[in-house]
Amino acid sequence: MAPMGIRLSPLGVAVFCLLGLGVLYHLYAGVLSNKVAAFRRGRSVDLRELLALCVEAAVQGGREAKRAHDGGVLSSKAKGKTREGAEEMLTLGDLNSHRRMYYLIKNRFPHVQVISEERDYSTKASDAEWNSVIPDEILQKVQSQVVPAEAVTVWIDPLDATQEYTENLLQYVTTMACVAVNGKPFIGVIHKPFTGYTAWAMVDSGSNVLPRSSYNAKSPSVIVSRSHAGKVKGYIDSAFGNNTVIIQAGGAGYKVLSLLNPTDEKYDKADIYIHITYIKKWDICAGNAILKALGGHMTTLRGEEIDYTGSESNEGGLLATVKLNHKELLEKLPNLDQIRSR
């Protein structure tokens, strides 16, 4: 007998094909959905995780700056002049801290824009990998919050107060990281490499630093830059009187901490921080975020909020306060354009 063959009707062939396609769909749909999910995770950022990473970056960057200083290998050189004519210094501490901080953040969040004071990317810190451990203090105080990566800009200052760093005025030196979301300061980290103290805060979430119990609005102590003290004195005297206490200090990070109550005792205590010349956003973003998280304010001297997108410079000076009527203080300040034209 001739072998019997299996014949399928056209309907049977159609059913068989549909079943096969169904199996293939379920097999590949799962793979595809996993890939899409992974892609979406890569294009999103958990801000609590990024806060922990910024703390680690500031600490590791500070360690590099301290190592260069303690080893006597500053290799300092002038990288240009500021608008005021002062020499702007660059040291090995700046560069090594920059590489460590920049690549720690970029290696973990490659889709996030990171803006650093330094621009040297010739030597990558190949071992700059984060262990993804979030400290208990952050886990307890901060809730997870996910945002699109394209909404995030990280501003890092690998070594604030470089001039003071070269002069051995180490109390002013900090490393800083700030996260801006849609241009608004949201996470701030200020680390002091030579004492080991770190202040951090996340807006509408938590902080490890607090304001002081009281501030003096009528006769405030005003902290200003060491390099601009002469120019700003007349501005401050005209606002608050000739007997106003003016504190000269280095580093924007240090000046913000002087408004607060850090556990590190090596700080001047100021009521107001004023700066009348232009200033770079990596200098002020971290402090702005910390003050904002604590209910304080940092604005231009015209009362404008500072936008942390676009230009790297803030041209409008700044007024920083905590637990004071910021608007009333702004009204006491002279017109900035008149002061600059003198």
UniProtKB/TrEMBL annotation:
It catalyses: a myo-inositol phosphate + H2O = myo-inositol + phosphate. GO terms for biological process: phosphatidylinositol phosphate biosynthetic process. It is a single-pass membrane protein. Transmembrane segments: none annotated. Keywords: Hydrolase, Magnesium, Membrane, Metal-binding, Transmembrane, Transmembrane helix. One of its GO terms (cellular component) is membrane. InterPro entries: CysQ/Inositol_MonoPase, Inositol_monophosphatase-like, Inositol_monophosphatase_CS. Pathway: Polyol metabolism; myo-inositol biosynthesis; myo-inositol from D-glucose 6-phosphate: step 2/2. Its main location: membrane. GO terms for molecular function: 3'-nucleotidase activity; inositol monophosphate phosphatase activity; metal ion binding. Its EC number is 3.1.3.25. Gene3D superfamilies: 3.40.190.80, Fructose-1,6-Bisphosphatase, subunit A, domain 1 (3.30.540.10). Its cofactor is Mg(2+). CDD domains: IPPase. Mg(2+) binds at E117, D157, L159, D160, D283. It is found in: Membrane. Belongs to the inositol monophosphatase superfamily. This is inositol-phosphate phosphatase. It comes from Scleropages formosus (Asian bonytongue). The gene is BPNT2.
